[in-house]
Each structure stands twice: as C-alpha cells, then as structure tokens.
Amino acid sequence: MLRRKPTRLELKLDDIEEFENIRKDLETRKKQKEDVDVVGGNDGEGAIGLGSDPKSREQMINDRIGYKPQPKPNNRSSQFGNFEF
Question: What span, in angstroms and rounded, lies between the C-alpha atoms of 63 and 5?
Fold first, then answer.
C-alpha cells in the first residue's frame, strides 16, 4: 500500500454561505413545526398519541411500520411440534 500525504481541504466562501442558508432554512422549519404543535395542542389536534395510553401508541407504531403481531397459541403441540411424550 502506498503512503501519501493527507489531502488538504479548503473552506471557501461559497461553502460558508451555503451552510448558513441551509441552517437558517432548518431553523425556520423547526420554528414552524413548533408553532403548529403549540397551536394544535390547544385544539387537541397536535401531536397524535403523545398523551394517550401506551397501547394505542404501540398500535400506531405497528400500523405505521406494517407490523401485525399474531397471537401465540398456548398449547404444547404448537410449542414443540408433533412430538409425543
């Protein structure tokens, strides 16, 4: 393997301006989202499921990711197959 000197990265004025623009855009989006949550919280339509019981929150997450849990049977034949004791 050949060794070489580390590559030098230079920060340009355009890069700084782009970073500042993106940061300002993200801050405005965050403020808008917080404003919507605050206004929606007063109306009762803010963040759905935050104040509800854990089962409904878990159900909402399962629906979102497409997970449908199947109930497990409690008899021994389902746990160990068709073995005879």
Answer: 52
The residue with tokens 């060794």 is 3
Q: Hey, is 10 helix, strand or coil?
A: coil
- Taking residues 30-58, what's their average pLDDT? 68
Q: Is this structure's pTM higher than 0.90?
A: no
Contact 60, 47 (CB under 8 A): no
Nearest to 59 by CA among 67, 47, 51: 67
Q: What is the mean pLDDT of the chain?
A: 77
Mean local confidence (pLDDT), 43-67: 71
- What's the number of CA atoms in the CB half-sphere (13 Å) around residue 24? 6
